[in-house]
Write a structure and sequence with these properties.
Blueprint (H helix, E strand, L loop, with lengths): L1 H18 L6 H19 L4 H30 L7 H30 L4 H25 L12
Helix pairs in contact: 1-2, 2-5, 3-4
Length: about 160
């Protein structure tokens, strides 16, 4: 089963760049990325079928809430401090810190929920696998861009 999941993961990661030219574009790429993430995490934490049925609804709820917090943090970072008053900067920084605290609380809450479905070893592997998957995706995006990091250029 592990071999099949790894093969699926490699296939999805290999096909994802080709799909970027599809009409659906972004939505299709996100769907492919999500499928690759599911396969990757399932393989890395060695989910049984019974565990998977219980785990994925909890994990999906967790990622939905985490994405919302991250979206709200990104919105705060978009504000140009030069265009804000001191009070607005203070409010943005306070909100940013509050959101970071909410993210830590969310992770603690779901740490407990994950342990009801997974062994502690699997929970540890889950958090490590999430980081590894994210690093791999960032690396592949950078490689596709010719090795350039996805950052802004300073020489303009």
């Amino acid at each position: 089963m592990k071999y099949m999941l790894r093969s699926l993961l490699l296939l999805l990661l290999a096909v994802a760049p080709a799909l970027s030219f599809a009409q659906a574009g972004r939505t299709e790429r996100l769907s492919q990325l999500e499928n690759a993430r599911i396969a990757y995490l399932t393989d890395k934490i060695s989910l049984t079928q019974d565990q998977a049925q219980k785990f994925w609804p909890v994990y999906n709820d967790f990622t939905t809430k985490r994405r919302d917090l991250n979206r709200r943090m990104r919105q705060l970072r978009l504000a140009n401090p030069e265009a804000l008053t001191d009070q607005q900067i203070r409010e943005n920084l306070t909100q940013s810190l509050d959101l970071r605290q909410q993210e830590v609380k969310l992770e603690k809450d779901y740490f407990e929920k994950f342990q009801k479905v997974l062994s502690i070893r699997q929970v540890g592997l889950l958090f490590a696998a999430e980081r590894d998957f994210t690093r791999e995706v960032i690396k592949r995006v950078a490689d596709r861009r010719g090795g350039r990091a996805p950052a802004t250029r300073d020489d303009d």
